[in-house]
């Protein structure tokens, strides 16, 4: 058996950026809390926890005051920033730049469209998706499979974005099906969509299919 390691394997640049932010604060000896696991890697989490990082839930966050909290690469909804301001919490914002740009685009699209049908292709409850949905005060439709397209009113304008870590192939299949259905209804001109998947994720997806 031949095992090949992807030359691009390892943490994405957004996660590396968040880890570096955490290490900088921890090196100062300051207590640091993180909203959710900083990275989906037990070994790395144990290493950071040994340096003093404490992982907290959103419920715990709401009860805290006068502390320093790290926002991980997935990003957060506006409500998190509001709570931090009210409770005098210092936020160390390590949101991935790719996610930040997507949050801005989702919010802009929502403010421009009427009626407002913002569709997010992603996993319901995922931290990044929660942050995106929060940009439009919860007024977004989250779909993760073609079967869930029934949630959308195809006779009204539809604007689609993707969670940055989704599969490019699955996103294409979903958009193709959406085009097919709206074309049959004569509403294809009401559809707009954006390829908001991270390029690093896209390149890895291609490598896995070679």
Kindly describe this structure.
It is a single chain. The chain is 44% helix and 15% strand. The protein has two domains: 13-95, 3-Layer(aba) Sandwich (Rossmann fold); 98-209, 4-hydroxy-3-methylbut-2-enyl diphosphate reductase, catalytic domain (Cobalt-precorrin-4 Transmethylase, domain 1). It contains eight helices and eight strands; from the N terminus they run H-E-H-E-H-E-H-E-H-E-H-E-E-H-E-H. The model is unreliable at 206-210 (pLDDT under 50). It is α/β, with parallel strands linked by helices. The protein has a four-stranded parallel beta sheet, with helices on both faces.
Features:
four-stranded parallel β-sheet; Cobalt-precorrin-4 Transmethylase, domain 1; 2 domains; 8 helices; Rossmann fold
Short description:
This protein is of the alpha/beta class and 210 residues long. It folds into two domains: 13-95, Rossmann fold; 98-209, 3-Layer(aba) Sandwich (Cobalt-precorrin-4 Transmethylase, domain 1), CATH 3.40.1010.
Q: Which strand order do you get reading across the main beta sheet?
A: 2-1-3-4
User: What's the pLDDT, averaged over the residues?
Assistant: 91
Biggest β-sheet, characterized?
4 strands, parallel
- Counting copies of identical and different chains, the oligomeric state is single chain
CATH architecture of the largest domain: 3-Layer(aba) Sandwich
Query: Rg from C-alpha positions?
Result: 19 Å
């Amino acid at each position: 058996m031949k095992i090949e390691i992807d030359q691009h394997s390892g943490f994405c640049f957004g996660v590396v950026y968040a880890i570096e932010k955490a290490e900088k604060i921890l090196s100062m000896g300051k207590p640091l809390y993180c909203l959710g696991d900083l990275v989906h890697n037990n070994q790395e989490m144990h290493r950071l926890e040994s340096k003093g990082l404490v992982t907290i839930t959103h419920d715990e966050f709401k009860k805290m005051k006068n502390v320093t909290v790290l926002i991980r690469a997935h990003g957060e909804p506006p409500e998190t920033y509001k709570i931090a301001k009210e409770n005098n919490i210092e936020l160390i914002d390590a949101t991935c730049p790719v996610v930040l740009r997507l949050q801005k685009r989702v919010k802009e699209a929502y403010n421009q469209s009427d009626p407002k049908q913002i569709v997010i292709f992603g996993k319901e409850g995922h931290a990044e998706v929660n942050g995106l949905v929060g940009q439009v005060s919860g007024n977004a439709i989250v779909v993760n499979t073609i079967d869930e397209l029934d949630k959308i009113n195809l006779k009204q304008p539809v604007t689609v974005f993707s969670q940055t870590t989704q599969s490019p192939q699955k996103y294409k299949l979903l958009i193709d099906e959406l085009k097919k259905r709206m074309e049959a209804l004569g509403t294809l001109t009401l559809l707009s969509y954006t390829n908001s998947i991270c390029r690093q994720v896209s390149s890895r997806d291609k490598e896995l299919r070679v």
